[in-house]
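User: Is it possible to get a 3D structure for a protein together with its bound compound? The compound here is zinc ion. I've pasted both below.
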Amino acid sequence: MPAYGRHPSAQLIEVQNRSFLVDCGESVQMQLMRYHVNFHRINHIFISHLHGDHFLGLMGLIFTMHMQRRVNDLHLYSHRGLDEIITTQLRYTRSWPNFKLVFHRLEKDQREIIFDDDALTVETIPLTHKIRCSGFLFKEKTKPRRIDKVKLPEGLLIQQLASLKKGDDVRDESGRILYKNEDLTLPPRKIRQYAYCSDTAYNERILDQIHRVNLLYHEATFMTDDEAKARETQHSTGKHAATIALKAQAERLIIGHFSARYKELGPLLEEAQKIFTKTLLAIEGETFSIDDQ
Ligand SMILES: [Zn+2]
Ligand SMILES: [Zn+2]
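Assistant: Yes, that's possible. Here is the predicted structure of the complex:
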């Protein structure tokens, strides 16, 4: 619930000039504007599940995109029902957007790759919650070696540069090797992985899929004192989230989706940090970067 300046779930993920939205809680468009995000660059929105705190901001965002004359298709990924929810509202308001909405239905309890391009894949992470729910794993693809400008000799032909970029050696017209590829290039940039896991009860079945991710977001709705409540509502505690991060050997953990019963988040953070030191709080407007060096 919105409380103490905190908002329902929504995250902007930026990977190599691509912008994705994960979950779309109420007020998402206001938040995007507040943080100066050009939301016309968002072409794919991933909705984990159809509890209101994860999708109620979608209609407002779609409507504003329409008013601002968006033209690009907008892809929406969700468990069954979202197409009906959105099209019903559009039908009765008689404001069909001037851009195309493309609905993609997620499989229940099954991992699947739902997005795949030159730079990355996005796959679903089956979670344990009161209704069908999936997390999302953003995984970059292997990157090419980078040309080392310091070592680059002058006078290389365009074709020779192209073959260097492709990973081949530089050859002369007769096919003789002039320079070996590794002598003129640097190792490829590191591949980065980000996993989003919300909402979910404690579930070790996700461990192998999120093994050694650079950054893990895991919900921590409650503290261990309220574990009974967590069990009843199929949510996690700070201790649960940290244990998952530890067992998955994640590099860093972000916890979020805090219950409105906690005004101060310090104790929740401490609970998690006792198990997994590199834990951070998901605070509105905060940016978390994964270095690719
Ligand atoms: Zn939920
Ligand atoms: Zn929720």
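Residues 51, 53-54, 199, 257 surround zinc ion (ligand 2) (CB under 6 Å). The radius of gyration is 22 Å.
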